[in-house]
Structure formats: structure tokens, C-alpha cells
Amino acid sequence: MNPLRNKFQNNKNFFFSSEGLLFIAVLFWFAVLFRNSFFDTSTTSLTPLWIQLFNISWHIFIFIFLILLAWGVGRKFSKAIKISYSDISEEFSFAVSIGLGIICFLMLILGSVKILYAEATYILTAIVFLFVIKELKEIFLGIGETWKKKQNQKTDIISVIVLSFIGLTVLLLFTGTFTPPLSYDGIAYHLGVIKSYIKSHAIIPLPYHVYSNFPFNMEMLYTYSILFTRDEILAKMFHFLMAILSCSAIYSFGKKYLDRKIGLLSAALFLNTRLVNQLSS
Fold this sequence. Notes:
- The protein has helices spanning 3-15, 18-38, 49-80, 88-112, 118-131, 133-152, 157-175, 184-190, 192-200, 217-229, 233-257, 260-271, 274-279.
- It is mainly alpha-helical.
- The chain contains 13 helices and no strands.
């Protein structure tokens, strides 16, 4: 075997091992502390371009990491109650949703015992990561196997067009997550109430705001996001993720019970519905 290829294979095996994932987690931990300690999280038109690009890249990295973390949690829970999935898209849709739901309950517990601090969020994330290392390895292997299968499959022109349409829509919606919230619902309720909780380091009654008595599912994800990154961008990314998970679930349902093309077309139509576009970012 080529020595260079052998070295690459060894490095690849290391990063997909438990030790490699733990090493990445430690680097991630120090990166979070460094960024939140030495970088101003607010950006304006006067902020240097390199800091703005760093901030965008940072949020994308954190977003992907937390999706994988939720996926690992959901996969572990699914295995515990003996739920199986037909393919990786179906697993992504439901396992990530289950994982996010569990994270919501964990944040609700932190708020109930009055320890809504950024440090508590970091420790919670580290504990959850260690708990699902095995599942993360399985997820990476599953993604790799799916990618190899897709490379060997022939894709028709209709599927390529629909996928390109979905990809363009996703890109446009994702860019909207970096814009500031402007609606009353977002500023006064979804983010305003959360900031009151964070300021008090606990979930407290807000008698002057009737909407604060609604269920706390998404609000707990927003709390987690703001504590983690100290701004609203990651919270908007989680809002965007709800559209992606719904889109993936529609595709999986169509593919499983009807046809792959019908699943793709249904997902594209859903994602380009005006109300979905409006609420996705």
C-alpha cells in the first residue's frame, strides 16, 4: 500500500475512534471558551470583514456540531426503545427531533433548578457528548456508506433539477438566519422572554407577558442557543432546522410509501410554501 495513503487511513481511523472524537471535543471546548472570552459577539457594518466571516463560520460549525449531538442522543434513545429506521434520511428526521426534544427537557431542568448559566450549558453539552460517542461513530459510518451508495446510483435529470431547486431554497433560507429579528413575535416573545430567564438564571413567572405561559419546547432551544453563543443567530438556525427536519420527514414518507421522485417533489413544494419560507428564518 502507498505509505501516504496508509498514513491518511490511520489518521482517518483515529478521528472516527472514541479517542479521536474526544480529542475533537476538547478542541471544541477550548474554541468555545476562547471565542466567548476574547471576541465581541455583536457585529455591525463597521466590524472588520475577517471578524464577520469568523463569526459566520463559527456559528455554522456550532450548528453542525449540535445537530450531530442531537442526532446521537436521538439515535441512542431510539435504540433503547427499539425503534428502527428504513434509511438515513428517515433516521435524520426523527432521531434529530427526538434528540432536540431531550435537550429541551434538560434545559427545562436547568431553568427549574435556577442554574441557567453559560457554564452549565457547556458542562451539559460535554456530558451529553461523552454519553453519545458510540452513536456519533455509527452516524459518521452510516453517512459514509450512504455516500458510497449514492455515488454508484444513476440519478435522473428530474431528480437533479428538483434537488438543485431544494438546495437553492435551503441556501437562501439559511442566509436569512444571519439577519436580525424584526417581528414583534420574535423580539418580544421568543427572544424577549428567554432573555428574562437568562438574566434571572432561572425560569421565572412573567405576569406581564401572557405568551410566556406557552409550552417551552422551542424556547428551551433558544435559551440553549443564546447561552451557548451569546447572540440570537444560533437560535434562528434552530428555527431554520425545523423546516429542514420537516422537509426531510416529508421526503422520507414519500420515498417509503410512494416513490423517491414524489418524495423529492413534495419536499420541494413544502419548502417553497410562502408561510414556511417566512417562518424558517
